[in-house]
Amino acid sequence: MKRELGVMMLLSAVLLTGCGSESATVIQGSGESTSKQVTTQPEQDIDVKGIGASQNEKVKLYATTDGLRMDINGIEEDFDWKFPGDTGTNPQVNYTDLTGDGKEEAIIIIQTGKGTGLNNYDIHVVNAEDFSEIKVQNYEDIVADQIDSHVAKNGDGTLAITVKTQGKEYNFNFDYDPAPDYKQEELAFGGVVIYTLENQKIKLNLSGSVGISPEYVCDFNITYKYDSAKNEFVADQIEVKPIEI
After folding, report:
1. What is the domain partition of the chain in residue ranges?
2. Which of 77, 53, 78, 56 is nearest to 67 (CA)?
3. Fewer CB within 10 Å of terminal CB in the chain, N or C?
4. Rounded mean pLDDT of 49-72?
5. Angle 133-139-143 from CA coordinates, rounded to 5°
6. 242 alpha-carbon distance from chain centroid
């Protein structure tokens, strides 16, 4: 009787051990499935969206939840550049040598504002080797350092505009005064700031305005050059053209 009881207890232990092992296998399998799901679809990559690429596909640009991500030859870096996404214009992505050192840079031109009397762009030039950004002189510094303007009201309701830049003086009349009660002694800037890339040169179309609305009276066509001592793109040539209405 004791021998039979011992056999039954041993058999029960074996059965319980088998059940426990099978249960552990099921739990482990479920854990592996959950782990694979997280790995193949990382949460941080869900909202990444391609928004531009260079012609040779060596530079690619993506929008993320926190800014923009650039891929140069398979290496990625995140930037906190401003990208509204609601202007209807995707960034322009280029890959060419602007510094003259025989190595390409990534050039990104982004439309940041669009509306009635408003057309704004930003430009970013990035070293392809270390993703460092090369400064491009902004229009505020160009106006402060190289452009002197004066606005005077004529007796016939027109405006007399004088612009001095790079040793040249431009004088012209604007056909009407859009704000007779508004005192303005110099041109205003910032409504139209358009960067382009032409023949491996950065160019800027900057418009000067009068009035409150504003009313644009002349364009400044600015060509940049690379200053290796400053490691910066600076204004080189400035051409002034009155706007005819």
Report:
1. 1-41, 43-136, 139-242
2. 78
3. N
4. 95
5. 140
6. 30
Q: What is the pLDDT of residue 46?
A: 59
Q: In DSSP terms, which residues pair with 237 in a beta bridge?
A: 223
Residues facing residue 171 across a β-bridge: 162
Say which residues have a Cβ less than 8 Å from residue 109's Cβ, sequence separation at least 6.
91, 92, 94, 121, 122, 123, 124, 195, 196, 197
Is the preceding omega at residue 42 within 30 degrees of 0, hence cis?
Answer: no
Q: What is the mean pLDDT of the chain?
A: 85
Distance (Å, whole) CA 53 – CA 71: 9
Rounded CA separation 60/134 (Å)? 18
Smallest CA-to-CA distance from 97 within 128, 120, 121, 74 is with 128
Q: What are phi and psi of 8, to 5 degrees?
A: -65, -40
Average pLDDT over residues 216-227: 98
pTM of the model: 0.79
Whole-number Å distance between alpha carbons of 43 and 45:
6
Q: What are the structure tokens assigned to 164, written together?
A: 């001095």
- Percent of the chain whose predicted confidence (pLDDT) is above 90: 74
Residue closest to 199 by CA, chosen among 216, 167, 224, 179 = 224
